[in-house]
Amino acid sequence: MLLNNLPILSILIYTPIIGGVWALIVGDRQEQTVKYFSLAVSIITFIFAVILYCQFDPSYGGMQFIEESDWIKAFDIKYHLGVDGIALPLIMLTSFTTILVILAAWEVIEKHISYYMCAFLILTGLMNGVFLALDAILFYVFWEAMLIPMFLIIGIWGGPNRVYATIKFFLYTFLGSVFMLVAFLYLYTTVGSFNIEALHDAPLSLTVQKFIFVAFFLAFAVKIPMWPIHTWLPDAHVEAPTGGSVILAAVMLKMGGYGFLRLSLPITPDGSAYFGDAMIVLSLIAIVYIGFVALVQEDMKKLIAYSSISHMGFVTLGFFLPFSIFTASGSSSGAIMGMEGAMMQMISHGFISAAMFLCVGVMYDRIHSRMIKDYGGVVNTMPYFAAFMMLFAMSNAGLPGTSGFVGEFLVILSSFETSFWVAFTAAITLILGAAYTLWMYKRVVFGEVTSESIAQLEDINMREAFILFLLAVVVLIFGIWPEPIFEVMHATVEKLIEHIIHTKIL
Amino acid sequence: MNVDLIIILPEIILLALACLVLMVDAFSKDPLHLLTYWTTQASLLVVMALVLFYFPYKAQVAFNGSFVSDYMSAILKVLMCGITSVVFLYSYEYLKEHKFLKGEYFVLGLFAVLGMMIMTSAYSLLSVYLGLELLSLSLYAMVAMQRESKAASEAAMKYFVLGAIASGMLLYGISIIYGLTGSLDLLTISERINVDNVSHMHLIYGMIFLIVGIAFKLGAAPFHMWVPDVYQGAPTSVTLFISTAPKLAAFAMAMRVLVDGLMPLVSDWQSILIILAVLSMATGNIIAIAQTNMKRMLAYSTIAHIGFFFLGFIAGTASGFSASMFYIISYELMTMGAFGMIILLGRNGLEADMLFDFKGLSQRSPWFAFVMLCIMFSMAGVPPFLGFWSKWFVLQELVASGFVEIAVIAVLFSIIGVYYYLRIIKLMYFDEPDSMTTIKTSKKMHFVLSINGILILVLGLAPNILMSLCLMALAG
Prior knowledge:
heterodimer; A: mainly alpha; two-stranded antiparallel sheet; B: mainly alpha; 21 helices; 2 strands; globular
């Protein structure tokens, strides 16, 4: 078949990037052309992602579709791409979200539409690059380059306090990442390679592993973000335009999680085990404490931002449970369940948080306020919208039948194998999540119509309905039938668990 | 022909051509000095061609070991001529716009290039000193050329006095080393240092003066005081010149003196350079945050970059020195673009060197705003731009030599540095412009500046060639 010979991973990276540059060249004057062109590019990218999904062999846990060529010969840095069961769902998520973001910007962005489309398309390509890179330096280049479009997106199209938020975002993430770079350089001098798979197999002493783990932790924990280095996220979310918030929550946060899976756990398994309990404690703090913080927010976007941090706590919990589960029970089945649950949580949170931010965006476009107190009784004027938002709020709270339930449930279930109290604390989120989400929903949507402007609201148009409908379908499908995601990642997660429970210390 | 003369032929020809330019200018009555300008550019081209024609595939020594032509010197000389040519192109636009177009500017520039070339090829302390003085004296005069400007005169005075002190220090160091080893020849010095009867402590005493001299010329903290004042006070085209090609010569000087001459003392000068590097990165990055003048900010950023540049020397290996060379070359590219932008924005004899002059540039000129964006992200060390690789290369060598803590300190300071580069981007992209006057520029300048920006991006995507070149230059 012709498709077999295509460098499909490179296509996934460069289609959006070249498309983005072209959108910039077409320019603002041909607004409609730019919009349709960008939409076409994002759809083509998604089609390629679907082709990749169809051709992917789920029974094999290693890297597939490998592309490898020299980049910087003197240091053996390679242009090395590959995809496995962990990266594939994230690629699907990224390319799917891009379509939504471009649709969401359709009539909303008035300033420099071609810049906007260009920034998002390039961002998509770079994010795909992060998920596909198998060379540490290539990974780092994509990882950092991604900050540039996001910096501009928040800074140009953001809210009143955007400059503060975007510089904070940039510096925070940059600060974390440079330590990762030093760790890579150190690994190169000890192992002699930048190949991530070679680094997985390289033996390292415990002391070295601890240092490298901390360096990686700084990079990924800032990105996820974990308590107590999460403070950039609420600021960035509040100030970012709707599309920026969607990408930030749906994909960018997942990079931190992906980094743990791709680098921290396999390269420093003993370091990870050493810090495993600390990580579990930090995750639980994020889940519970940030849940309470979300409860008192008055700004809807801020509330969803905090809820994201809390949900991402489940992800890190699931990633670092395997060590204590394995010590407690000696079997890896519980560990696999926890990690798969965490992966599922990442994917599902991608859809749900995107949906929540889009819902806020829909209201913001009409009333130009994000404050909960400015709303009330929206259901009277926007019934269809209220129905959609109901579904997303429920799934954010983890209602069974929606995708939000699956991941949380699996993580909580597996945490019983380590200790009842961990499971108990994590399960508090089911109450807290329901409390902050539904309470916000009640204040915004139900009740009497509170103001003149609410009374004049128009319900969602076809475009908005289409975006929310797409997300609703996905959230429900994966809630009832999560198998397509588990199927592709099962072999890879199994291999990963098998790898990390064996010590690398010589 | 005498072999020695062939080895030094490019320098001799350059000297002759510089004199020719002086004559041409004296007899030409053209107020635009077009003939002078084009003769200058042609001279640089001729010299560049000569260096390439007599490319030294193996090191050749001339004049009883006081002059050497090797891989590194040839590459550096070609770069110097190329960079100076671009600098003169910008300068011509600038001088014309600011109405003090003078032929001497180009003559002095050519003499400065001659000085740099001699420094690059110097193989004895005396020829190092000669080259350095020829370069410095030309630069003092160039800074002072704008006679009506108080700031320029002040800058020239400061530059001259402090530069003279530095030269004195250097000379003192040279005399001590000469007294101890009985030779000015760098190779002989390094041989004799290994002999037991040379006192180690006295050698270090002399070496410290040499390092102070080098640090002064490069502008490393704590010998950086002249940098901000000269950068700000001098006409922008002169600042551009000072901050580009002479830095390559200073790199060559450091290579010759520290590596060719004092390599047996490597562990001693390493620890001194660590102090200089950390201090420079700290001073440069932190003080740059408080600046409101673009030229002054870039001056502090230079100090920080010089600190980073020293890290490659600290690694103390051939590939570490290559990393420094790569760093300084990519720094030249970026700084050339940055000062080019300042020249571009200035008009009608007014300098546009304040930060707020960059406000809303993305609306006034999207293309040049993008070029500046590339330069700023590159200086900040964000991939995929060239500046990332220069930092990466240096850090790589540093970690490979076991200086992990210093690498961590370096990245911490570079994060502080990111802030003030981001501020420029913020001004250009997030703020509204004060006026929407369009930017008018000559086609040549437009073209060269665009190439400069694109090069920073392209070399960032494919740093392979430049890296191999630097590794090769110092491998022998």
